[in-house]
Structure formats: structure tokens, C-alpha cells
Amino acid sequence: MRTSRYPTAARQSHTTGIDQSRNAIRGLAFRSSNVSPAGVRVVCVRSSAMTDSRTIQESIDAVADTMKVSKEQVMGRIASLTMLKVPASVTDTANAVAFVASDRARMMTANVINSTGGAVED
Q1: Is residue 97 part of a domain?
Q2: pTM for the model
Q3: Could you report the per-residue pLDDT of 2-53, keeping only the tens digit for each?
Q4: 18 against 95, higher pLDDT
């Protein structure tokens, strides 16, 4: 079965709920032409696990406990999954969002910005 990175992939039976939600968000960005004439830009920011967020901290604790490894080992594994070899933080993602919302990015619309540090390749 052919896989796609676009909204139609959500209709395929082998995709996960996360795949479906990502494709739905991407679909919204690509349909921004309806609001663009009013000066509205639609830009999605794709982030990765922000290791200083409460939910990821709880997940790290659970994984470390289940696997009988240290939190530092789990954090190291998360960092190793990115091209930059550092985990994302809430501040990193907030900075990406602030840039996209700024006038310096005024020509960006109908787009998905990758702020994963290379954890996800586009």
C-alpha cells in the first residue's frame, strides 16, 4: 500500500492516531488560502519531545523505571535521536514559534516548520 505524507494518509488503515493528527494539522496549513487574503498566515511548528516539559518528564521517569535505567540514560537516548544530538526544550520550541509569528517570517504561510533538531526529516 502506498504511504503519503499528506492528509489522504489519514484514511489508510495502517496509520496511527498520531499520523492522522499530524496529517490533519498539515491539511489545515495547506488550506490556508481561504484566510490568506485577510492577512492571516497559517504555519504549523513540528516539535519533538521537549524534555523539560512536565509530560515528557513524567514519560522519562516511567521509561527509566520500567527499563531499570537512569533518567540520564533515557535523556541521552532522546538526544541521540536528533541530528543535533541535543534534546529540544520548551524554550527552543517557543523561539521557533516566536520567529514564525514575527514580521521577519511574513512570507511564510501554508507551511509546516520542522523544529525537531533533525529527529524528524522532511
Answers
A1: yes
A2: 0.75
A3: 444 444 444 444 556 777 877 887 787 777 778 888 888 989 899 999 999 9
A4: 95
Q: What angle do CA 79, 50, 30 make, to 5 degrees?
A: 110
69 domain-assigned: yes
Angular region, 88: left φ>0, alpha ψ -120 to 50, beta rest = beta
N-term to C-term CA, the chain: 21
Domain membership flag for residue 107: yes
| Residue among 60, 42, 43 at smallest CA distance from 51 | 60
User: For residue 31, what are the domain limits?
Assistant: 15-115
CA 77 to chain centre: 18
Rounded CA separation 118/108 (Å)? 20
Q: What total of structural domains would you count in the chain?
A: 1
